[in-house]
Amino acid sequence: AQTVTQSQPEMSVQEAETVTLSCTYDTSENNYYLFWYKQPPSRQMILVIRQEAYKQQNATENRFSVNFQKAAKSFSLKISDSQLGDTAMYFCAFMKRKKGEQAKGAQKLVFGQGTRLTINP
Amino acid sequence: DSGVTQTPKHLITATGQRVTLRCSPRSGDLSVYWYQQSLDQGLQFLIHYYNGEERAKGNILERFSAQQFPDLHSELNLSSLELGDSALYFCASSVGLAGVEKTQYFGPGTRLLVL
Questions:
Q1: In sequence order, which residues have a C-beta less than 8 Å from that of residue A79 and are 6 or more positions away?
Q2: Which of A28, A63, B49, B100 is deepest in the core (most CB within 10 A)?
Q3: Residues B46, B50, B53, B59, Cα dihedral to 10°
Q4: Using 50, 70 and 90 to split pLDDT, how confident is the model at B99?
């Protein structure tokens, strides 16, 4: 079974600073996806960024980027020029990747415990 | 807005009762997933439907059941409710076709409070 660990329950930084959230995972799979989801006070789950394990290049989305280290099973999220609106819970998640008929099977997301990030003015 | 809708947004009920949560996936999405978010268990996968067919079960109690209808909307039925069932229930959808990206897009959730 896969497990996802976020070792930082809470983090706090000043606006405009850069912050890095950590995530490690444990799996015997070779093909999978990794995600960061954001959950602001509204409780909506919002996709921040996605990484395919077969891609060596780290994913980036505007101010958000990841550092994906497959051998180390590490997947950290870097937020540059942090903004007040980035205040939220951040969840790291793992999903197996399947093809063909198996793709109709279970691709459940396995979540970490979350990191509560506060951006201070 | 993810395009996934869930109703109702809030539900308050008593122990022993039965409730139904409804989810409409994004247009064109065939897969629907249900997740439960509680303080003590975190985010847990409950069940997955693909084009009307149950594909996988996670940590779903026997008191809970779900189905996906021909129009692809899904319902999660919770019965004999207990205090511990109070949680935020999310529905997510994805395309679910072979070889196509599998990102799951979440609805706004239904907050269930059992008194």
A1: A18, A19, A20, A21, A63, A64, A86, A117
A2: B49
A3: -10
A4: very low
**pLDDT tens per residue, range B41-91:** 889 999 999 889 998 899 899 999 999 999 999 999 999 999 999 999 999
Q: Out of B43, B100, B109, name the one closest to residue A111 (CB).
A: B43
Backbone angles phi, psi at A23, to 5 degrees: -155, 130
| For residue A84, pLDDT beyond 70 | yes
- Whether A1 contacts chain B with CB within 8 A: no
C-beta separation of B32 from B48 below 8 A: yes
In angstroms, the CA B26 to CA B28 distance is 6
Q: d(Cα B5, Cα B63) in Å, to the nearest integer?
A: 24
Q: How far is CA A6 from CA A9, A24, A90, B51, B103, in A?
A: 7, 7, 9, 34, 21
CA–CA gap between residue A11 and residue A77 (Å, rounded): 13
Interface test with chain B among A108, A113, A115, A116, by most B beta carbons within 10 Å = A108
Distances (CA, A) of A107 to A11, A45, B23, B79, B111: 30, 17, 18, 26, 24
Taking an 8 Å cut-off on Cβ atoms, the answer to whether B102 and A43 are in contact is no
